[in-house]
């Protein structure tokens, strides 16, 4: 194991306000010319003192940008000076300039081996309009800092065209079996995030996985090649264009607002999506995929979504996927509410199924199977719930004529091997609410009494007659469009403003190169 490198002097990053202030450069060569660029960019009033002044510096004087004095340095040159560079090719001269500056309380930077005695060092810097980015290695490696600076410069070129983009597919575009391969979880999700992090022009992103959709929300350069690359990574380039969607700019903002309002869910108006999006954003921040841009997007979209919910809620039933599941079982399984129900999974949906089933049923009981997190149940319902972990699943299967699967498992929890353990004498209804699916498709109909329904089956069974969705969507689209100024404020904050920047972001200074 290699020992850590010796650290350089400790520095405090600052941005000096040098505009209209007198600054002095002692030296007239290549390094002096480079330091001139920093001062001119800062709007300083610059004087160069040196018996030998290069043609490049002389040209700046002829253009009226600086003043040159063709002689050796005199301490009186420091009168009224705010900041000085000792940039000659003579170590002794630079040391004497440093000493004189210290006596006069003038900030000074030496460009040679005297740099450790200086008051400051200049970083490797890249500027773009009002944005300045500086890179430091605490004086350890000028070449390394310049390499990082060059890489950042390429990235900054893509910031001004950064915009919102959503790429994804859902139950409205693909069936469960068609959609399932595109869902990301576990190692696949981590790998996808790692690959996306390598793409120039992608600034922040999150990946949203729900039971009915997989979406990439990204703040990225609005370039066609970026879109094509994202389609390739997500696997959508192999789909018919009608099998997925790409939303950009204001369209992406409207989409996220309608999504958070629950109107793009399989049961329009449901509330789970808010928690799912917040969880996806939190995961992105934890993984280093997103920060202020993504959080600002979520906050703005949530604001619009609340307006949409307030206006459309009276037109919608208070309805969640759990309600749809139980309605289906009531219709398909006579006497369902008076028989035991098995629930696999102790997450949000699993808990919702248990709560709603017990509220609807006066005598029904629940067999609640969990994998890791044991559900907490209140004393008033302990006599109606039997808890078991997945190790005891086979022993419990035959006791329930209805089973609901809602785990976060990336694979099948029920499969052909479980068929002999199911009730062999009565009809058994299995509802799979998970994505990826918890129930192997071949279990459906493996015997005449076993019937499996997935999310597609619920979608086809359910018909919302109580609400005019076209009217609701038209209303929601109008509300989102009325908030266009929020989208414009959001995008301007990272294209040219600083509303989402965190004060005090890290930046290091770099040791000046010597003559």
Q: What does it look like?
A:
There is one protein chain. The chain is of the alpha/beta class. It has three domains: 22-122, Rossmann fold (3-Layer(aba) Sandwich), CATH 3.40.50.720; 162-317 and 471-495, Beta Polymerase, domain 2, CATH 3.30.460; 321-461, Rossmann fold (3-Layer(aba) Sandwich), CATH 3.40.50. Helices cover 36% and strands 17% of the residues. It is built from 16 helices and 17 strands. It has helices at 30-41, 55-62, 91-104, 142-156, 176-179, 186-196, 224-234, 249-260, 272-287, 292-312, 321-332, 348-360, 393-396, 455-461, 469-482, 484-495; strands at residues 22-26, 45-49, 67-69, 83-86, 107-110, 124-128, 131-135, 162-170, 202-209, 213-221, 245-248, 341-344, 366-370, 385-389, 402-405, 428-432, 450-453. The strands form four sheets. The chain has a six-stranded parallel beta sheet with strand order 14-13-12-15-16-17. The protein has a five-stranded parallel beta sheet with strand order 3-2-1-4-5, with helices on both faces. The chain has a four-stranded antiparallel beta sheet with strand order 9-10-8-11, sandwiched between helices. Helix 8 (249-260) crosses helix 10. The protein is elongated, with a radius of gyration of 33 Å. The protein starts with 21 loop residues before the first strand and ends in a 20-residue tail after the last helix. Mean pLDDT is 87; it is low at 497-515.
Helices and strands in order:
Layout: E1 22-26, H1 30-41, E2 45-49, H2 55-62, E3 67-69, E4 83-86, H3 91-104, E5 107-110, E6 124-128, E7 131-135, H4 142-156, E8 162-170, H5 176-179, H6 186-196, E9 202-209, E10 213-221, H7 224-234, E11 245-248, H8 249-260, H9 272-287, H10 292-312, H11 321-332, E12 341-344, H12 348-360, E13 366-370, E14 385-389, H13 393-396, E15 402-405, E16 428-432, E17 450-453, H14 455-461, H15 469-482, H16 484-495
Parallel strand pairs: 1-2, 1-4, 2-3, 4-5, 12-13, 12-15, 13-14, 15-16, 16-17
Antiparallel strand pairs: 6-7, 8-10, 8-11, 9-10
